[in-house]
Amino acid sequence: MVNIWDIVTDSFFDTLNLVPFLFIAYLILEFIEHTSQKNMVNIIKKSNKYGPLFGAICGLFPHCGFSAVASSFYSTRVITIGTLFAVFIATSDEMVPIFLSKGISLEFIFELLSIKFICALVVGFVLDFIFKKKKQNIKIKEFCDCSHCHCGENILYSAFEHTVKIIFLIFIVSFIFGSLVEGIGEEKISMLLSDHFIFSKFIVTGIGLIPNCAASVILSKLYLNGAISVSSLLSGLLVGAGVGLVVLFKMNKDMKENLKILGMLYAIGVILGFILELILHS
Description:
Layout: H1 4-16, H2 19-33, H3 37-47, H4 51-59, H5 65-75, H6 81-90, H7 95-101, H8 106-130, H9 132-136, H10 155-184, H11 186-195, H12 200-208, H13 214-224, H14 230-237, H15 244-251, H16 255-280
């Protein structure tokens, strides 16, 4: 039986942990919007050259807050698409603490994080190379196009207002997906993967896209229970951007672009999963 109160509590605290990340991100975006656009564009052009490297490093920290920040920055073109993907792919969320609590060796955890880091770097720099024309003609978008906010009055108040709005949405999404996962159950998900081994990479990658920390929890437990292989675990974790996707769909007004990013992320997860299957089992 689904315990609604537990889902509400988990969703609340998961969302609460994101508040400082998003508030700081929105403060930065407000500052950018209130400073010289020309100087800021020049700074961003120079820093974005190494964006995927910094993105991959930030993503390694066991928290999906960085993916939410990356989505906010990409929506206003403060970072490139390569940096966005680098953060998404490197994000590990709950995997590290779960493995540590189960006594998994630090060496194995380091190997997983290293693989994610390398994949994030490669994908990030490749995407920036492919979309280099857009990168060179970068133009910062306005942070807020809402006529009912107080962006022009006070930077702190505006950052707080935007944080509250996005946090509420994240809580709702976390509750919905938490309820779905709890309703289906980890045992049924495990059986589904075992009975459809050929399609496991596609299913696991889909689980990884769930915009909730429950995705990394499920994937980690499935691996610990022997239901999925290391490559399948990585296939899901490589796309586990957490609430980053929720923030992207909320802040980036180009819905076609959002869907393309989602499709690209899924495809990359599946492809890298099969490549890692060949490498790790060769």
